[in-house]
Amino acid sequence: MGIKAKFNRADVRRMIQRDWAKIEANLFSIMAYVGEEFVTNVRSGMQIDQGAFPKGDYRDQTANLRSSVAYFILKDGIIVRKNSVGTAEGQQAAQGMLNSVPKLRKGYQLVGVAGMDYASRLEAMGYNVISSQAEVAMINLSKQLKAYAAKKGFDMDIDFTGVMVQMR
Predict the structure, then answer these.
(1) Which of 13, 49, 98, 116 has the largest CB neighbor count within 10 A?
(2) Chain-centre distance of CA 165, in angstroms?
(3) pLDDT tens-place string over residues 65-122
């Protein structure tokens, strides 16, 4: 008496693809939540460590700098979600900054940017543009991904080696 399977390889492949699609959707949701927090924190002038940034927040006179703050979620180097709203000049600067970021050929990326060409000069002068918010985003992303993996009963390797704060 033998056991006969009532499924074939195609059935197994469909099941694995369906399960992976659910996991991927959850990863995108987590990354989008952290990205939204990043953008909100930057645009609202999140409270920051006055020791690290003695000048605190800056005055965005044209709204272009805060409009150039955006996040992008990429899968294998292709944008799957983004938050880029505001002035046309700011949005164009954010997209331009994304174009200068090295893309992973395989894998997922959450990229936060401040695209205006003077963002890094403001940081160098002691103002906070996105540095402290980027740090908070990395910590939150790591915590949320690890919590999700633990909840689902699998291990997740989170590699932040390529993390950098991108500003012009």
Answers:
(1) 116
(2) 11
(3) 888 899 999 999 999 999 988 888 988 999 999 999 889 899 899 999 998 888 888 8
pLDDT (tens digit per residue) in 130-162: 888 888 899 999 999 989 988 988 877 776 654
Output the CA–CA distances (angstroms, integers) from residue 106 to 75, 103, 128, in the order listed. 7, 9, 32
* 12 token code pair: 């197994």
Residues 67 and 39: beta-carbon distance below 8 Å: no
Residue in the block written with tokens 């990043």: 38
Identity of residue 34:
V
CB 168 within 8 A of CB 119: yes
Q: Give the chain's radius of gyration (CA, Å).
A: 20
Residue 56: count other Cβ atoms within 10 Å of its Cβ.
13
Helices 131-152, 9-44: inter-axial angle, 10-degree rounding:
150
Query: Which residues on adjacent β-strands are paired with residue 71?
Result: 83, 112
Per-residue tokens: 160: 């932040």
- What letter does residue 109 receive in the DSSP assignment? E
Tokens of 77: 């180097």
